Amino acid sequence: MTAAVSVRALDVTLDGTHVLRGVDLAAAQGEWVNVIGPNGAGKTTLLRALLGLVPFDGDIDIDGLGEHHRRAARARKLAYVPQTPVVPPGMLVADYVLLGRTPHRGVFAAETANDRMIAVEILERLDLRGFGERAVQSLSGGERQRAVLARALAQQADVLLLDEPTTALDLGHQQDVLELVDALRRERGLTVIATLHDLTLAARYGDRIAILAHGRVAETGPPTEVLTVQNIAAHFGATVRIVDDPEGPVIVPTTAAGRSQAEPAPITQNGDQP
Amino acid sequence: MTATRGDDTAETALRAAGLRPASLVAGLAAVVVAVTAGLTLGPVDIAAHRVVIQLLDGLPGVSLDSGLSGAHAAIVEQIRLPRVVLGLLVGATLSMSGAAYQGAFRNPLADPYLLGIAAGAGLGATVAITSNLGDGAGALDPVPLAAFAGALISVTVSYVAGHLGGRSTASLILAGIAVASFLTACQTYVLQANSDAFRQIFAWILGRIATSGWSEPVLMLPYFVVAAAVVLRYRRALDVLAVGDEEAAALGLEPRRVRMIVVLAASLGAAAAVSVSGLIGFVGIIVPHAVRLAFGTSNRAVLPLSVLFGGAFMVVADLAARTALAPAELPIGVVTAFLGAPFFVLVLRTSRREIW
Asked: Structurally, how many domains does chain A consist of?
């Protein structure tokens, strides 16, 4: 399988801070890779570097994209769902989704009948039929996230970059969005690179997980190998229990009180049991 | 992925919020009504149909008799018509530039004077007037030329300073504010040192649509054409820019380049408008917002409709300025605010749209 995206020795420095240091990461065509890591690890910066929004050192290869290319060419290969999308006041869902056609039509041209057909098809696929003339601002959180996803899909890119797509959604809508992305990935052969905070969801919906910590890829591999008690303690500073479930590991945070009951208490220095 | 089946109902539901024919007709009607009023009303009332016939008579290959006396024909053709045309051009340019600034900076309070055009033009005019270079009337008078130069210099300095300050939109706006404050301070100093020129300078600052024949409209026309051609060409790009620089870049746009081109074109037009008509406030903010409230926020509609409604608004405001206290003339800046503010409150009250 060819790599849809491959990153080698990626270094990003922003305002004098070394945000990413020698990051290596690849996603095969049709693969879903979740990038997890504590706050400030550089997850969003990694996505922004892929999008060409920040200066970087190192190599980013995007399948089918030459070394010297225009922004529009990149936008035809990579579609982006930002963590907190800017919702322009008064913009209608139809216009918002049609923005995704920008890299195809060019900024000066009107959208074509084909652009409209694509937008209509996507709105239907995402259960947003009949939402075309509503303002994006008026949508609920779940609907809005689908509208943003619709705009990204309208780009007809091979690679979908999702930055915390489930933030601000309730559990049901989190599941809806991730199921939708998974179904679309299978239907359209999309490559998905997502950052996620919820480790259980990351285990459930990804083929592979990369832990990003202090600007480096600390671990990478299938969820069962990467999501261990030791790795989570080391990189997130969190104490968890991992419950095996047929669909993948479930990460359960533990409390200090719970730990003292469940495990033999640590032996104190003088050897007494408390 | 290619959509192969068309769904008529869904397709209709996907009507994009561009410029709709009905909106365009409304804008053109506003211009026609304003121009007719501007040509027929005044100290001498001239019937509208005679004005129309007189104007048609002026077209090459057309010979009609309007029944107007020579003096009345001269009032229409040599006094009112150039003034109406100048009002259209100045109003259209200022509101379009305002709409362009608001789109480019994604800021509802942006107006064409944001990067120091008003202060630069004010300083240029003040220096020219106090140096007795001219009296502020006439197109090739040094006063408008000095104002034009001052306006362009201040925009250029703001842009360069904003870029040095980190290239963000905020740094550009802050640079504009700093440049404007500095130039206003300079202007105040020059004004204080030449208090005998107060009246003349304030008359210039408050603005007027005064013409001496066709020289001002002819001078203004190319700037309007260039600014409108560039700004209107970028109307779709400004709609993409509405999602912010980062997302716009991820959609394939070059946000900084688009902003620079749009702002420079809008500034060129606004500088020319200011140099021929003084500092007419309010139009660049109120007209685009009224258009958004009435016709939606897409720049594909807002920019062309701001041209039409801005022109019409200025002609009506100028009509009020020259007739309200005739034969005395009110400064047009006073009229635009006096007419525009209540009108805008009315639009604000009746519209349910979210525009910002």
From this structure: 2
Q: Is B171 left (phi over 0), alpha (psi -120 to 50) or beta?
A: alpha
CB contact under 8 A, A129 and B3: no
Residue A99's closest CA among B313, B328, B239, B91? Answer: B239
Residues A170 and A265 in one domain: yes
Q: Which of B205, B154, B160 is nearest to B182 (CA)?
A: B154
What pTM, to 2 d.p., does this model score? 0.88
Residue B225 pLDDT greater than 80, yes or no: yes
Yes or no, beta carbons of B16 and A70 under 8 Å apart: no
Q: Nearest CB to B244: which of A51, A86, A110?
A: A86
Domain that holds residue A95: 87-155
What is the set of domains in chain B, with CATH numbers? 20-350 (1.10.3470.10)
Beta carbons within 10 angstroms of residue A225's beta carbon: 13
B169 touches chain A (CB under 8 A): no
A133 and A36: one domain? no
Round to whole Å and give the CA distance between B343 and B335.
Answer: 12
A99 vs A80: CA distance, rounded Å = 12
Over the stretch A41-78, which tens digit does the pLDDT of each residue have? 999 999 999 999 999 999 999 988 877 788 899 999 99
A120 with B247: Cβ contact below 8 A = no
Q: Closest by alpha carbon to A25, among A42, A13, A10?
A: A10
- pLDDT over threshold 50, residue B4: no
Would you give the DSSP letter of residue A268?
Answer: P
DSSP B251: T
Q: Which residues of B touch A80 (CB under 8 A)?
A: 247, 250
Q: Give the amino acid at A272.
A: D
What share of residues in chain B are helix, strand, coil (percent, to 5)? Answer: 70, 0, 30
Q: Which residues of B touch A74 (CB under 8 A)?
A: 252
Taking the C-alpha atoms of residue A26 and residue B146, their distance in angstroms, rounded to an integer, is 60
Q: To the nearest whole angstrom, how far is the Cα of A76 from the nearest Cα of chain B?
A: 8
A77: in domain: no
CA distance B268 to B121: 12
Quickly count: other Cβ atoms within 10 Å of residue B233's Cβ: 15
Q: Does the pLDDT at position B15 exceed 70?
A: no
Tell whether ipTM is more than 0.85.
yes
A132 with A182, same domain: the answer is: no
Say if A257 falls within a structural domain. Answer: yes
Picking from A96, A123, A155, the residue at the C-terminal end of a domain is A155
Domain boundary among A108, A128, A155: A155
DSSP per-residue letters across A160-176 = EEEESTTTT--HHHHHH
